[in-house]
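### Sample
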Amino acid sequence: MATQADNSSPKKEAHKEGASRFRVTVVGSGNWGSVAVKLIASNTLHQSIFHDEVRMWVFEEVLPSGQKLTDTINRTNENVKYLPGIKLGKNVVADPDLENAVKEANMLVFVTPHQFMEGICKRLIGKIKPDAEAISLIKGMEVKKEGPCLISKLITDMLGINCCVLMGANIANEIALEKFSEATVGYRHSKEVAQRWARLVSTSYFLVSPVQDVEGVELCGTLKNVVAIAAGLVDGLDMGNNTKAAIMRIGLREMRALSKLLFSSVKDTTFFESCGVADLITTCLGGRNRRVAEAFARNGGKRSFDELEAELLQGQKLQGVSTAREVYEVLRHRGWQASFPLFTTVHEISIGKLPPSAIVEYSNSSAQ
């Protein structure tokens, strides 16, 4: 693919005299954020259109050793809490000051839990460069009175900058170990900007394809987490692969139908990209949403998702349950619950209104 060019060269490519280089800041430092930094840092060293240094905003934490997380990252070149054992790149600088981390950047990579993004954007209003471009790796949405607001639109509306999205079949720890993976960059207008983002993150083991469908790409990454909760419930109930495959098919159908109802511009072909069916498969087989939902079902729904999240994820955040609630709010507001029984059932199970077994009762009565 053209998007992976230039990453193997040990030296920076020639750069035009006087041309300014793009400075990159990654806003977020969890598991996926740390992997994104690793990908980006290896490319900024080898491509002269980018400034070598990559800043990473870190929400400061004190480790059990008593040391600050940012100090440890800068000393060891490793995020010992969220991505232990993986070197991020010597050109990565962890910064606990959000405004300082972004002030020089004209390429902003957002990768935090989606429920924190509105607050982060509020802090950044008027603090970023006017020519900055953004990309969101965040899977989730905000629900407001007027309807759903995708994170890319939240960033654009609040910060006044263009925002692409990157989604795909990307379990972070596998990419950290440099196992082959693909992803999709969704863009709205400029293919040139999308290709620059692809160039920033693509490597020989991480291939990125641009698609002109921001909403479709982002909704795939968001909605698949709800289906992953359903798949985990099926695993926890020991229902087997046939049932799980049926749930995944029904889930993909609801993902596509809801996306096209919300945004008429969404393309059918997007669901065949890495952000679509591939991401759905990998998340239903091995993601954190599937894992926690399995534990929820094995406990008969008697332990809450919040409790299991704290126990199993060591500080990482579960996206599927909050997304299921947000999707349900959209469905309820528009009277669409009956048209999306899987999405509705996942939410009702997650709040304790239905038992975990309702997920297969649904699949028996509502599959089409």
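The domain at 219-366 is CATH 1.10.1040.10 (N-(1-d-carboxylethyl)-l-norvaline Dehydrogenase; domain 2). This sample (Glycerol-3-phosphate dehydrogenase [NAD(+)]) is used throughout the tutorial notebook.
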